[in-house]
Hints:
- The complex is a heterodimer.
- By secondary structure, chain A is an all-alpha fold.
- Chain A has one domain (about 55-280): MetI-like (MetI-like fold), CATH 1.10.3720.10.
- Helix content of chain A is about 70%, strand content about 0%.
- The mean pLDDT of chain B is about 85.
- Chain B is mainly alpha-helical.
- Chains A and B meet through helix 1, helix 3, helix 4, helix 5 and helix 7 of A and helix 1, helix 4, helix 5, helix 6 and helix 7 of B.
Amino acid sequence: MSRQTRVAYAFLAPGLLLFAVYRLYPLLEGLRLSFTNARLGRASEQWIGLANYTRLLEDGRFHVSLWNTAFYTVASTLPILAVPLALALALNRGRLRTLLRSVFFFPFTLSVVTVGLAWLWLLDPVVGPFNYYLRGLGVPARSWLADPQTAMWTIILTTVWWVTGYYLVIYLAGLQDIPRDLYEAAALDGASAWRSFWTITLPLLRPVLLFVVVTHVIGSFQLFGQVFVLTGGGPGDATRTVVQHLYEAAFQNFFQFGAASAMAWVLFAVILVFSMLQFRLLRGHTEY
Amino acid sequence: MPRIARPVDRSGVALTVALLALAVLWLSPIAWVVVTSLKPAPDIIRLPPEWIPWPPTGAHYHEVLLGSSRTARIGRAFANSLVVALGSVVLVLATSAMAAYPLARMRFPGRNLVFVLLVGSLMIPNAVLLVPQYVLTQRLGWLSTYQGLIVPEAALLFAFGVFLLRQFFVTMPRELEDAARIDGAGPWQVFSRIIIPLSQPVLAALAIFAFRSAWNDFLWPLIAVNKPEMFPLPVALALLRSAYSAESYGPIMAGAALSALPLLVVFVVANRRIVEGVRLSGLKG
């Protein structure tokens, strides 16, 4: 081994140790556990093949949570793409960009619990200000989080409020990378702002859009905190998610580590498939 | 070339006004939290909503910080979160800066493999590792300890940190290193005396990113900590909610406001660093 190689690995060693122990090993250990009947406190676990996976096929609540998670992911994708983008376009044109950017970014610095508690109070069906002002607009008061029709949409609303600032900053950076003269040339050719948006901004923003969608989807499939604080998965199982189901299987009821690991790997597979699909859909060359 | 005087951009002004109105609306949930936390209990649920808490009271803050009767003590949780967040910042910065240096500036066998492995790991959803990570932490005897929170948090951000710092290290001019080497400096001196001091902006961005991530993490500490005195803030807050009846919004909102405080300070002081960090995380990711 050359001296440089030894030096290089000496620098890498602490980080790689951390990475191997707390990232790589758990990944493989999780896969192994998913084929066993491991439980908290069970001294010797047994290899049970695909039993955990086949049992998931019959687990109605798992299906419901998978469906809810997928619904949340799909339903929230458009607002997560569009709201920050609209804001970024507006901020890019108007004044006070730095100030406004900071304001919209601020919720993103809060923890999911803080966000959840704030909205829980705002949305309080009896004494919360949200319903009070809606009544003023003629919308009857209701418990948005206790109604299966609206609970998931309310979670989407709070999430959009929470993360918009993050994507806004990313969009703003993307917009600034688009050469100005393209717009000037288009304006000289008589293109409207709307047309410029569709023919210049959107195509050139494609890598950014791809990043936003993939990041959002990976995050969405792991939805947990908002649900934990706002609805607890209810009403009924209307907002129950996969990670919540996994959390309860592993850490609340019976501590079924094997079964929960199988859920984790099903989730992983679903996320991979979704991400691949999006890469396919949004990939393509960006030409200037 | 003479420029044609532009007419006042009326639509631009209208847009800015509309955005300002939206910004006020956007901040109103946070304002409501703070307002509530400063109101005497009977005023909190009064309708129509009162947006000026007058006269303000510090009673709710006093209760959550110093009251000892409740299961979740926010004062202690605040300190726990601080230890965990700062600990993981230090660990992430040290490990990822050291790892990024050879990946950016040295040639050695296995370099590409290591890098691909790290970048690939960014795609692993965190929730997938939850159970095995718990089993591992339990075997190490680290449940309900600071290291049981700090080390996994640092491991989570390590790959991202390497990625971010490597991008930056690669752009440094080679002459700097060469000059130091001619003067007899070894790799460690080059790293600690040249690379690190020149990377302060990106290190600051990573530090803030890591602080935010560790300060706000909820799911892992919810699982890995079962002693109330070791709860970090998000867990303590979530349980504070169930400890009080639904109507006692005052103490809960005081806790929520306190949890937002450190990042608010960082945010005001280092706004540009945060934005820069997010930008780097996104566009290069």
